[in-house]
Amino acid sequence: MARAEAAVTLGGVELLLREEVALLLATLVACGLLVLGTLELIWPTRQRGPRPSRDDTPRGGGPAAPGGQRPEPRGPDPAPAEDRATIALRVGRALLERALQDPDPTSDWRARMLCRAIACLERGREAAPGDARLRESLAAAREALAQTDQRLAFRWLAAVMPQRAPRLAPAGPE
Length: 174
Prior knowledge:
By secondary structure, the protein is mainly α. The chain is about 60% helix and about 0% strand. A two-stranded antiparallel sheet has the order 1-2.
């Protein structure tokens, strides 16, 4: 009722208020942008891909290399072997320490973290096969995983065979 009183009528045609016109225009613009975005997804107007940097030469231009062939584009330079080994050692030790801080020695989380530490240390050993620190950390991680796997196996057997659970319990805490 209040809306009918606020609207102005001219010859039987009701005029819209300014707010209603603004909402109508905003709705039409939003619908138009939605349609344009959908069309852009269906039929892209430009090729998607990495943007060229300022140092790159244009793909079609530039002088040809000797022999008439263009040089192959190079990817990013791989990290030196020492850097990869150092990073792998740092991350592997951090994962090992986090796994060993878990108060439950039979948790699945601990086993996953130990497996990740071993995988990381293995990659570091591939980068630097002669590094003694990597070998020592890898041996410690494998030993911790073996103990965790043994405890996990005992826990699983105790759950499967409850009548023999007292005999399957590990000898004692470390």
